[in-house]
Amino acid sequence: MFSAGTDEFVHDQDDEQYYDFISGAAGMLAIAGIGVAAASAYYLSKKPAPTQPPFNLDNQTMVEGPDLIHYSRFSPYGNEMKFMRYLYDDTRTLYDVMPRGSRISNNGPCLGWRADPSSKYQWISYQETMLRAQNFGSGLVALGLKPGPDTLVGVYSQNNPEWVLSEYALYTYSMVVVPLYDTLGPDACQFIINQAEMPLVICENDEKCRSLLKDIPACLKHLVHIKPLSNETIELAKRNGINTLSFHEVETLGNEYKFKPVPPRPEDLSIICYTSGTTGHPKGVMLTHENVIADASAILLHMGDTKPNSSDVMISFLPLAHMLERISHLVLYIGGGAIGFFGGDIRNLMDDMQALKPTITPAVPRLFNRIYDKVQSGLSNSKVKRLLFNAALGSKERDLRRGIIQKNTIWDKLIFKKVQDGMGGRIRLIVVGSAPLAGAVMNFMRCALGCVIVESYGLTECAAPTTLTVNGDYTPEHVGTPIPCCAIKLIDVPDMNYYAASGRGEICIKGTNVFKGYFKDPEKTNETLDKDGWLHTGDIGTFLDNGTLKIIDRRKHIFKMSQGEYIAPEKIESIYIKSQYVAQVFVHGESLKSCTVGVIVPEEESVRHYANQHGISGSLSFLCNIPEIKQLILNEITDFGKKGGLKSFEQVKDIYLHPDLFTVENGLLTPVLKSKRPELRTFFRAQLVDMYRKFD
Ligand SMILES: *[C@@H]1O[C@H](CO)[C@@H](O)[C@H](O)[C@H]1NC(C)=O
Ligand SMILES: *[C@@H]1O[C@H](CO)[C@@H](O)[C@H](O)[C@H]1NC(C)=O
Ligand SMILES: *[C@@H]1O[C@H](CO)[C@@H](O)[C@H](O)[C@H]1NC(C)=O
Ligand SMILES: *[C@@H]1O[C@H](CO)[C@@H](O)[C@H](O)[C@H]1NC(C)=O
Ligand SMILES: *[C@@H]1O[C@H](CO)[C@@H](O)[C@H](O)[C@H]1NC(C)=O
Predict the structure, then answer these.
(1) Considering only CA atoms, which residue is closest to atom 9 of ligand 5?
(2) H/E run at residue 155
(3) Selection from 116, 134, 138 nearest residue 126 by Cα
(4) Domain ranges across the chain
(5) Which residues line ligand 3 (CB under 6 A)?
(6) Is 472 touching ligand 4 by the criterion CB < 6 Å?
(7) Which of 53, 521, 599, 638 has the lowest tally of Cβ within 10 angstroms?
(8) Ligand nearest to the CA of 517
(9) How far is Cα of residue 96 from the mean position of the Cα atoms in its chain?
(10) How far apart, in whole angstroms, are the C-alpha atoms of residue 24 and residue 42?
(11) Which atom of ligand 4 is nearest to the CA of 57?
(12) How far away, in angstroms, is 235 Cα from ligand 2 center?
């Protein structure tokens, strides 16, 4: 998840867009110049008790056998490699989730939204949600969709109540939901619709419908639109033999027919969640009802008293196309909580949060980093502010180390209140996952927000969270322990010098949350799932002495050159990229060659600056062809390589300068902006061959 390969459970897609809302809150940190002594006196008088951890935090996992398999101390089965499948007898498939939420909350509010940024949240109850989902599902059956897990239906929308209604409608008739989203790359939606042979897609708006109608997959017969379509789009669809209906029309149709629900079995497929690979087409991760329920149930058991309940409200803004967000929803519904959707524009997220006042939110490190950076830069120009801030942070960090989480100290009132209020003021629990989070940032967020923040690690292939930190462990820089539906072991990665016997290796996961394979792709499944059912994640981890897992690296592309030395091109790239002249770099090597070569997209501004100083002008393409500029860049990166400790056989011996950036659109980057190495190799084949020719 930390890079390409087996994929991340939350793509940092649309990063800028998603987290820009933080910028609006510049100077969120109010620093008041009030006496520090008074502050500490007030604060000393109100200290709550520390969190009671569920067990000794020096010994957080169970370990078994010669392979040092780590599993949860919460596991109800002890150490027999048996894994939890569900927590509640009445909740064994996704179809069971809403009735449980309804019972637990006494038919409380389930889904909420705002018509526009000036209005209040409106809600539908659990019963209404179930009824509308059943009607919508019945409508799909009336349109000719066959109940059962062979029918796959796409949902192509931002988060909204209709997304959830669609999903539960499909489960009501044992059909399978397939999220579609933009950042999978060009033509990905068409590829997925074709591969899954979808007869119908539920589509948010005119624009998304138009994009599907550009190149219509033959299997597609119906488009259900959530927002109104233009007459033009309706006409276009009609001309191409596609039936368009509004969401509401399908509900009405279903209400007329009232088809009986066809509940799924735990072993039935529930979702195919496509993720981008570093190579070729997106891969469809097949998850059964049991996979997903096991994961959510294990999280609930692991969380103990902090788990969501019927007083909780969660804000939904991370993409529902990803498992972390979906599992978060699930955990809320099982606990009878409510979900409020953001308005769809991330720039207004703060505003949505203030209207909703959520108690729970999932988060990604990116969001925390933004807040942290903002606060740090706000401090940089004032010594007094920094002093006061450090006193506040120091005081709250001391609490944290004692296991005390609170937000009513004087420091909160003086210093941290704005950050807390920015998120609505009621947040009590945040689950953060999807990428490593720096310790200083995590500490800061725990202190500033004064709420429980748990860190998790997982992949789409195991239904998202697979490890979680436990109550009372507020130390940063680890991802906790396996949750009780799975076990984790480390295996050797000799190429990278990681050996399980010395406590480091590739993380492998086995359990009831591990997927059934990639849809219609036995070869890739075979590369990822071994014959004993272990999922090979590609992430390198180590278990700390107290049994918590720490992610330390990512399995790299490595190859052996003709003289027998191993080369990791990504490592070389990570050094070259530091040069001011390099915007992007791709390092290539071959087993029959004795050196590496590279493709570099120059940083236009600095190259132009150099060119101007030397009386050269022209387009970037022109500059790329000037030998002097190529030599400049080659010399500079070789210098960086030397300083960065590269051996001479690792250094590129020649480069080709390319004027156009590698992008997601031109197919050279994954949606998380990682290089697609095989595509790059193909794209630049002629140049690579040409460079190597000189050394033959
Ligand atoms: C950790 O806990 C387990 C189970 O309670 C116990 O068997 C084991 O001896 C403990 N290990 C240490 C180092 O205390
Ligand atoms: C779209 O078509 C409907 C029905 O044919 C018509 O009533 C409506 O005015 C049209 N809207 C536009 C914007 O042309
Ligand atoms: C839900 O959990 C919170 C935090 O643990 C607690 O304060 C609240 O009383 C709980 N509500 C219900 C209905 O159990
Ligand atoms: C677990 O061990 C790590 C590494 O020794 C340490 O940094 C961390 O503080 C420990 N966690 C707890 C809760 O003691
Ligand atoms: C999976 O790999 C094993 C050996 O690694 C091989 O025997 C088997 O045929 C492969 N299966 C598929 C479907 O590729």
Answers:
(1) 526
(2) strand 152-156
(3) 134
(4) 94-329, 364-554, 559-693
(5) 305, 309-311, 428
(6) no
(7) 53
(8) 5
(9) 26
(10) 32
(11) 13
(12) 11
pTM of the model: 0.83
* Ligand 5 cavity residues, CB under 6 Å: 522-523, 526
- The predicted-structure confidence for 367-400, as pLDDT tens digits, reads as follows 888 888 888 888 888 888 889 999 999 999 999 9
Sheet holding 652-657, edge to edge: 582-588, 596-602, 652-657
Compute the distance between CA of residue 478 and CA of residue 483 in angstroms, rounded to an integer. Answer: 14
Pocket test for ligand 5, best of 526, 529, 531, 536 (most atoms within 8 A of CB): 526
Closest ligand by atom to 311 CA? 3
CATH number of 559-693: 3.30.300.30
What are 62's two structure tokens? 């169970």
User: Cα(525)–Cα(542) distance, rounded to whole angstroms?
Assistant: 25
pLDDT digits (tens, 9 = 90+) for 195-252: 999 999 999 999 999 999 999 999 999 999 999 999 999 999 999 999 999 999 999 9
Convert the pLDDT of each residue in 647-689 to its tens digit. Answer: 888 899 999 999 999 998 888 887 777 788 878 988 999 999 9
**How far, in Å, is the centroid of ligand 3 from the Cα of 28?**
29
Is residue 542 in contact with ligand 4, taking CB distance under 6 Å?
Answer: no
Helices within 582-694 (DSSP H only): 604-613, 620-624, 627-643, 677-683, 685-693
- Which CATH number fits the domain 94-329, given the four candidates 2.60.40.10, 3.75.10.10, 2.60.120.10, 3.40.50.12780? 3.40.50.12780
Whole-angstrom distance, CA of residue 236 vs CA of residue 249: 20
